[in-house]
Design brief:
Number of domains: 2
CATH class of the largest domain: Alpha Beta
Radius of gyration: 18 Å
Order of helices and strands: EHEHEHEHHEEHEHEHEHE
Distance between the termini: 10 Å
Helix content: 40-55%
Shape: globular
CATH topology of the largest domain: Rossmann fold
CATH architecture of the largest domain: 3-Layer(aba) Sandwich
């Protein structure tokens, strides 16, 4: 994977809430570096002025940023289903969502529904909270767990770092502190270090074992002033990023989270680099 092929089509689920406005800002930051097109999707759930207000904001925003934003409206249906429908029909390569908000999607995004977009998409999804930090993408955390698929996020991290001029913060982490867990994670960390060194990418290394993984990742991201945290979804080893743990990061992390599936076709064969 390289910069010329990544993130050319970005989809932003937009409801004019504060979190979705922050998602749009982050989408523009990425689009500027990857020469991407941006589509903003608004799902109309009832008869009101929300779409017109959102459209007005987006038009003013895109003019101020100097980036063209295509605005799409879908009427009715479940929000997450409409987002996934558009992602697949439009062959989008990245989705950004404001995971919570005070208007628009609030009832649809809360809890497991927000995670359904992450778990159903074929492309990476960046979730952004209303209270997300203002940090830029200059620091990106790459957790490595005790899992065969954990390294599949590494090529994405490298492409982001090269395009954004970011430092990658490798974080070896496991809820277990057994010798097997430590050895597995440490081996993945060393492989990842070599991968980044070969590409002249700036990086740091840290680790934590015998910890609550989501909390440890968030604390490390705060420590390095990260603007993005990369995780694999559903496929990390038992009890690490699966189920409630992954959902916890998506729904509560004050740092934007990029969730990547092992089934992502852009990453085919990438687990072993």
């Amino acid at each position: 994977m390289d910069k010329e092929k990544a993130f050319k089509k970005i989809l932003v689920a937009f409801d004019n809430s504060e979190s979705s406005r922050k998602a749009m800002q982050k989408a523009c930051d990425i689009a500027e570096k990857f020469n991407s097109s941006i589509t903003a999707l608004f799902v109309t759930t009832d008869a009101n002025k929300q779409f017109e207000d959102a459209k007005t904001f987006l038009e003013q925003f895109s003019t101020a940023k100097g980036i063209e934003v295509e605005i799409e409206e879908m009427k009715g249906g479940k929000v997450y289903e409409q987002v996934i429908k558009m992602e697949k029909s439009g062959a989008f390569q990245l989705i950004l969502i404001g995971a919570h908000g005070k208007s628009g999607f609030i009832q649809s995004w809360i809890g497991s529904n927000a995670f359904r977009v992450v778990s159903s998409s074929n492309c990476p999804v960046i979730t952004i909270q209303e209270h997300t930090s203002e940090s830029t993408f200059k620091n990106i955390v790459v957790p490595l767990a005790d899992s065969n698929t954990t390294r599949q996020k590494v090529p994405y991290a490298a492409v982001l770092a090269q395009a954004l001029g970011a430092t990658l913060h490798i974080f070896g982490v496991s809820k277990s502190d057994s010798n097997d867990a430590v050895n597995h994670v440490t081996a993945y960390v060393r492989q990842t270090e070599r991968y980044f060194m070969e590409r002249n990418i700036k990086y740091t290394v840290d680790s934590a074992f015998g910890v609550k993984v989501p909390e440890a990742c968030i604390e490390h991201a705060k420590k390095v002033d990260a603007g993005l945290l990369l995780i694999m979804t559903e496929t990390e080893s038992a009890g690490v990023f699966m189920d409630s743990y992954s959902q916890q990061l998506v729904n509560t992390s004050p740092i934007p989270v990029m969730s990547i599936h092992s089934r992502d076709t852009m990453l085919t064969g990438a687990a072993g680099y």
